[in-house]
UniProtKB/TrEMBL annotation:
<protein>
    <recommendedName>
        <fullName>aminopyrimidine aminohydrolase</fullName>
        <ecNumber>3.5.99.2</ecNumber>
    </recommendedName>
</protein>
<dbReference type="InterPro" id="IPR050967">
    <property type="entry name" value="Thiamine_Salvage_TenA"/>
</dbReference>
<dbReference type="Pfam" id="PF03070">
    <property type="entry name" value="TENA_THI-4"/>
</dbReference>
<dbReference type="GO" id="GO:0005829">
    <property type="term" value="C:cytosol"/>
</dbReference>
<dbReference type="InterPro" id="IPR016084">
    <property type="entry name" value="Haem_Oase-like_multi-hlx"/>
</dbReference>
<keyword id="KW-0784">Thiamine biosynthesis</keyword>
<dbReference type="InterPro" id="IPR004305">
    <property type="entry name" value="Thiaminase-2/PQQC"/>
</dbReference>
<keyword id="KW-1015">Disulfide bond</keyword>
<dbReference type="GO" id="GO:0050334">
    <property type="term" value="F:thiaminase activity"/>
</dbReference>
<keyword id="KW-0378">Hydrolase</keyword>
<comment type="pathway">
    <text>Cofactor biosynthesis; thiamine diphosphate biosynthesis.</text>
</comment>
<feature type="domain" description="Thiaminase-2/PQQC">
    <location>
        <begin position="15"/>
        <end position="221"/>
    </location>
</feature>
<dbReference type="GO" id="GO:0009228">
    <property type="term" value="P:thiamine biosynthetic process"/>
</dbReference>
<comment type="similarity">
    <text>Belongs to the thiaminase-2 family.</text>
</comment>
């Protein structure tokens, strides 16, 4: 049996914003992977766009790493983030091999609006004006949406096409779930000591991540 996690402010926010949270983790595109009805041109679109997203996410995580080294209360925090950065190294390689498997040439993929908007949002979060607790909350949300979404595609009763299980395993595996829970604990600890202003900003950042994730799935489903 898994130990029940202590409920913190993030869980309170997720309850409060349940409808957008559900929209992000149970989007029609993800549900279509799970039920096997996914349109493969949508999957190709997602693959190309997400490769570009991840290239923008790497500097964001690198920034989180730098700030964790300076501002975080516990030495293990930096190691958690470093682990995430290391898996992004594998992820880039994984994207490249998927790209050739699916005939997606990343050098010709143009970032669509939802992707550009999301990347701009991440860039804004890298400003030194943004509090570390806010950055950490957004970081957790970005990872958690993928974890929850792709784990859903692997749950019992799924009809996920065999050629898509690699993608689902990448984010839906138990190790990634553990990692997300470690990131969440760091964010929660930072939020425990945060000012009212920082809390409001973190809640806003969380909701905005969820909105960007919904728009990203929407764009993928559009499949161009
Ligand atoms: C859009 C998007 N959100 C999150 C992740 C990683 O969690 C990703 N690869 N792409």
């Amino acid at each position: 049996m898994e130990k029940p996690e202590k409920r913190g402010v993030i869980d309170t926010w997720l309850d409060k914003h349940r409808s957008i949270y559900t929209a992000a983790i149970r989007h029609a595109f993800v549900v279509s992977i799970r039920d096997g009805s996914v349109d493969l041109s949508s999957f190709r679109t997602w693959l190309g766009q997400d490769y570009l997203f991840v290239r923008g996410f790497v500097p964001f995580v690198a920034n989180v790493l730098i700030r964790a080294g300076k501002e975080s209360g516990e030495t293990s925090d930096m190691e958690v983030v470093l682990g995430g950065l290391a898996s992004l190294n594998d992820e880039i390689e994984w994207f490249k091999s998927e790209g050739s498997k699916w005939g997606v040439d990343f050098s010709t993929v143009v970032p669509q609006k939802a992707n550009q908007d999301y990347r701009r949002f991440m860039e804004a979060l890298m400003s030194s004006e943004v509090k570390f607790s806010v950055m950490m909350t957004a970081f957790w949300a970005i990872e958690a949406v993928y974890q929850e979404s792709f784990a859903h595609c692997l749950e019992v009763g799924n009809k996920t096409p065999a050629e898509l299980t690699g993608a689902c395993n990448r984010w839906g595996n138990d190790g990634f779930k553990e990692y997300c829970s470690s990131v969440k604990k760091i964010a929660e600890r930072c939020l425990e000591n945060a000012s009212g202003e920082a809390l409001a900003e973190a809640e806003d950042a969380l909701v905005r991540v969820l909105e960007h994730e919904v728009a990203f799935w929407e764009m993928s489903r559009g499949g161009q």
